[in-house]
Amino acid sequence: SGVIITPDGYLLSNAHVVGDASEMSVTLTDGRVLRGTTVGRDVATDLALVRLQTPGSVPFATLGDSEALRVGQLVVAIGNPLGFASTVSAGVVSAKGRSLRAKDGRLIEDIVQTDVALNPGNSGGPLVDSASRVVGINTAIIQGAQNLSFSVPSATAQWVVSELLAHGHVRRSFLGLGCQLFPVSRLFQRAHLFDPPTAVQAVNVVPAGPAARAGVRQGDVLLAIDGNPLRSVDEIHRLLPTPGKRIRLRLVRPSDARNPNGEGRISTVELTTEARPHGT
Question: Which residues are catalytic?
Answer without folding.
Answer: 16, 46, 123
